[in-house]
Structure formats: structure tokens, C-alpha cells
Amino acid sequence: MNPNVWLIGAGPGDPELLTLKAVKALGQADVVLVDDLVNPLVLDYCAQARLVYVGKRGGCRSTPQAFIQRLILRYARLGLRVARLKGGDPCIFGRGGEEAQWLTDHGVSCEIINGITAGLAAATACGIPLTQRGMAQGVTLITAHSQDGTMPDWTGLARSGTTLVVYMGVAKLHDMSSQLLAAGMAADTPVAMIERASLASQRECRSTLAAMTRDAAAFQLQSPAVLVIGRVAACQVFGAADAPVPAYAEPALRLSA
Amino acid sequence: MNPNVWLIGAGPGDPELLTLKAVKALGQADVVLVDDLVNPLVLDYCAQARLVYVGKRGGCRSTPQAFIQRLILRYARLGLRVARLKGGDPCIFGRGGEEAQWLTDHGVSCEIINGITAGLAAATACGIPLTQRGMAQGVTLITAHSQDGTMPDWTGLARSGTTLVVYMGVAKLHDMSSQLLAAGMAADTPVAMIERASLASQRECRSTLAAMTRDAAAFQLQSPAVLVIGRVAACQVFGAADAPVPAYAEPALRLSA
């Protein structure tokens, strides 16, 4: 059965980090609901679709989630093929699960199409190997605070031996730093702060757990940014001159069968 | 500067989960070194390349890492465009960082191209929202034991409030279950065990922390498999009938500019 709705991860920014499956679905969609973190260049792949912007625009408040869900439902019930396009991966802090559940509860079938999540792309773009042997036991993707107001258990995270990758953390740098220091993480633990990962305008600031708040201020770090905290954050496994830069001057790649 | 070597993530199995960037690089490569976890259908994108298999084949021991690295270097120094193709993402338990560092140290430039990592793809394919609000503070990707023999800090992980996604854990189910129970994780914590994620032959077994070893044996769970441990592992946000199945009967998608 073909789904009525695709929930699609647009990846971190570079349009070439879209999956083939995402490009194929975007090319078939009649209407695409576009989140604010999606690079406009990705929309080149929406060949025939009406584009509906549902993210924060120009300082306005974000479109309410309930409204977005009702909009998807309305389009799907009109028989249209609907794509919901989100930055990164729909199920990594993207509310893809909530939207899929709500659609299923309302009798609309959907398919979730993975995207490269921003945290992994940001690290790769800076030459940081998140799970490097001997340096990390794994990697934890986390937000600095959840929408229900609860905080992560920083003590458990500090103990875990995993590299921490923090999404949506720019406004919480001081809190994070204090909590992780209080949890026993070393003051000189390396930190990398990566702004606009995978785009030509990407910037990175290397620091330490104790200095990150001050260094981020001097760097004028802006959202969206990803933080990498752990020994691997001092690595750069390839030279900066070799860092991939999207070649936007090239024509967009097209799919054919 | 164009890289001499691409370290490419092939994703979890479904060829449509390749990124455009990966397909483009594979199409330009002169030689492709292929890992054993790569779906052979992905190799359709290697238009002009000599294929060299460097993974475990038919019970033989894996090609030594040092040999693979020297092979990449030799091809690159011949002026060939070399692609190293790995399952999942090169930097999530894929040794991509080690290979990139080694090549850089030997004067060979390289670019790492992200892939959809198996753990995230497996969860999505089963309708499990890894970071669902109110159920998880984030997600931790981990292996059951590292190659240097050390174990993760299960107590820290149990405390972290994150969903645990365990790679290469089939042989360690009993150890993991015991350690997490000893660390205070509830016996009825949901567990999903997902074999061959994203392929048509994908199978999943839902269980609990206390019952996972017994249930996996009854299910005859085989590697490669991914485990999801945490409250979200009881979810299925879309119906099983709607689960995406790769349409291998279709011709492979091609890129054009």
C-alpha cells in the first residue's frame, strides 16, 4: 500500500545529503509542508508540489503543531500525496513519531523517511569521529532541555563514557557546562560547537567544558548549532582545507530510472 | 581540492537510503573497497569501478584493518579515485575516523560521506520514535562491548534517561540484560530486536529487558541486528502493514545533472 503521507528528513542542510528515497518522494508529492530548518535549495526536488511553509518565519511564532497535523490530514483526505519535510531526521528531536501516531490514529497511512541527523553530519563535517575506539564508548544525542521542562540526567551522561552531541543548546551553554562539571566531568573535556553544519557558511569553535560559555560568546555562536562534548571533540581526522563544501554552483542532481 | 579517497556510508541496506552525495561519488570512483555489511544492490551505483571485497566472507576471517588501509593508500597513490564503502555511517562504529586519520597522516586527502546509521534506520522501519517526548531524553548509540574489551558504564546509561540503541549485541544479550537490571533498569523495560533493518527480509522481535535473552533465542535472532532498549521500544507509530519495503523490482534510480 502506498502511503498517503511521507514524513521526510531533509538532512542537515547540504542538499546532496538527501537520500534517494527522499528525493523520489519529494518528486511525487502534490503538496510539501516545509519546516523552517530546511535549506531552500532542497526544495528544487519538489518538482510539482505546492509548497506550504509551516515553520517560524521572520520572528513570527511557530505554526502550532496541532494546526500542522490538521493541515496534513486535510490534504491527505483530499487525495493529495503529502510530504512533510523536516530538517535532519524526523525521529531525532523532530516530532516525527508524534505526527505518524496522530495520522495513524486518524486512519491515514504514512511512511517515515530517514535523514542524516544534524549532530552526526556536524561532527563528520569537522572531522570529529564520534565513536572513535579508545576515546568513546558510543554517542548520545540529546537536547539541553526537553519541551516538558525536564533536564537530562547529566550525572548519568557524564558517567556513560559516550560522546555527547547536544541539539538546540545555544541558549543553555552555561547550564550545561555547570551541570556537567558538577557531575564530575573534567574541566578540560574538549568541546566543539558547530554552526550551520554541512553548509558553505558552516563555522566551528573548539573549546573546553570550562571555557565553552565564554568562547561561544566571543565567537558569537548562533542557532542552529550542535555541540560535541567528549575526548573526540579535540580531533580533526582530516585537514580543514579538505572539509567538504557543497558545490552549489553545480546543477542539482536529478533522479531517473 | 578534490579528495583522493571517499569514505562512504552505504546506509543500513535499502539502496534508496543512500545519499545523493554517496551515489555521485560511487559513480566517479575507479575502485571501490566494499565491506561485508554492504547490500550488493548498492554496488549498482559503481558504474565504472573495480570492486574489491575487504570484509568477512563465508566464514573467513576479516581482512586486517592495516591491510585495508595500505590498499587504499596504494590505489590513491596510483592516482585512482578510491571509494571505501561501509555499512551504515563511516563514523558510527565504522572506523571511518581511524582510516581518515591514517590517510591524512600519509598525505592523502579524504572526504567522509555520511550514511543513515543502522540503529536509526532500524527504529524508523519498525515505527519506533527514538526520542519521543515524555518517553526519552535522547538516544544513545552504543556497542555491547568495545574492541579494547572494556564495557560501557551500564549504570550511567541506565540513569541517563535516553533510549539505548545497541549495535553488534546479539552475542551479548545475557550480559547486557543482567548488567542493566543490576544497574536498576526496570525488568519490564521494553526491548525491540531488529534483524536486517530496512531490507525486505527485516524481522523484529519485541520483548522486555528481563525476557530478551529467552525471546531472542526462541526467535532465532541472527546478526546483524540492532537492539532498542527503553520505553519507546513498545511503540509502533504506524501500522505494520504500512512499513516501508524496498521495491527492488524497480530499476535503480540514476543521477543526472
Automatic annotation (TrEMBL), chains A, B:
Which keywords appear in this protein's UniProt record, sorted alphabetically?
Answer: Methyltransferase, Porphyrin biosynthesis, S-adenosyl-L-methionine, Transferase
Q: Tell me, what is an example of a GO biological process annotation in this record?
A: methylation
Q: Which InterPro entries match?
A: 4pyrrol_Mease (IPR000878), 4pyrrol_Methylase_sf (IPR035996), 4pyrrole_Mease_sub1 (IPR014777), 4pyrrole_Mease_sub2 (IPR014776), CobA/CysG_C (IPR006366), Siro_Cobalamin_biosynth (IPR050161), Uropor_MeTrfase_CS (IPR003043)
* Domain Tetrapyrrole methylase residues, every copy: 5-211
* Keyword Methyltransferase attached: yes
Q: What is its EC number?
A: 2.1.1.107
Family listed:
Belongs to the precorrin methyltransferase family.
Supply the name of the protein: uroporphyrinogen-III C-methyltransferase
Task: State the organism named in the record.
Answer: Achromobacter seleniivolatilans
